[in-house]
Design goal:
InterPro entries: ITPase-like_fam, Maf-like
CATH class: Alpha Beta
Largest sheet: 7 strands, mixed
Protein name: dTTP/UTP pyrophosphatase
CATH topology: Maf protein
Number of strands: 7
Shape: globular
Radius of gyration: 18 Å
Enzyme class: hydrolase
Bound molecules: thymidine-5'-triphosphate
GO molecular function, one term: dTTP diphosphatase activity
Structural class: alpha/beta
Strand content: 15-25%
Organism: Bauldia litoralis
């Protein structure tokens, strides 16, 4: 008899895990991948998000191939990229990068893309690309300096986290909020249900 369908979240992002938990999904395994996330020359933000989500899926599958107990597992990966026009902003690791991002984001609209890949046990990859438009207020010198001092930008695409202090910078958002945080929940839920993952069953637990 086939075992219960398992889920591997191939991510080291605590935000992605929290977002999945929010819809009652608890992955059987967390598996951070490590890939080169540098954009190619002239690569558009949307293409970068798609490519990196796919490369994370491939890296996770290679790590899983010797794990018999996860042979029957779905594997979920995502990558979030902030784009200003045709330019990909970095996932800020240094304060100078974050400062450059804030200057570019100040007083204008940008787009946040998340590429999502769900791989089924037979190796089939189902992919989504989700886009949200975000408009920031003009950031004063104090906004920028205080935000940099907060450290909240660290490890975040585009050097900000909308779920934290930077929520106060957002004038307008068009599209999915959870997409900006790192995992668009409508699309994730649709992909998981499409592969037969029993999301609603989990909602009944505890009642
Ligand atoms: C724009 C934005 C990004 N982010 C985060 C989500 C992601 O963790 C990160 C983008 O980097 P990613 O490379 O997408 O993800 P990651 O390296 O953190 O995790 P993994 O590859 O292991 O799945 O930025 C926020 O938390 N809030 C935001 O508002």
């Amino acid at each position: 008899m086939p075992g219960r369908l398992k889920l591997v979240l191939a991510s080291g992002s605590p935000r992605r895990l929290q977002l999945l938990n929010q819809i009652g999904v608890e992955p059987d395994r967390l598996m951070p991948t490590s890939i080169d996330e540098a954009p190619k020359r002239h690569e558009l933000p949307r293409n970068l998000a798609k490519r990196l989500a796919r490369e994370k899926a491939e890296a996770a599958l290679a790590m899983l191939k010797d794990e018999a107990e996860l042979a029957n597992a779905l594997v979920l990966t995502a990558d979030t990229v902030v784009g200003v026009g045709r330019r990909c902003l970095p996932k800020a690791e240094r304060i100078e990068e974050a400062a450059t991002c804030l200057r570019l984001l100040s007083g204008r609209s940008h787009r946040v893309y998340t590429g999502l890949v769900l791989t089924s046990p037979d190796g089939q990859m189902r992919q989504r690309l989700v886009e949200t438009r975000v408009r920031f207020k003009r950031l004063s010198r104090e906004d920028q300096e205080s935000y940099l001092a907060s450290g909240e930008w660290r490890g975040k695409a585009g050097g900000y986290a909308v779920q934290g202090l930077a929520g106060g910078f957002v004038i307008k958002m068009v599209g999915s909020y959870t997409n900006v945080v790192g995992l668009p929940l409508y699309e994730a839920m649709t992909l998981l249900l499409g592969e037969g993952y029993p999301i609603h069953f989990n909602w009944l637990k505890g009642n």
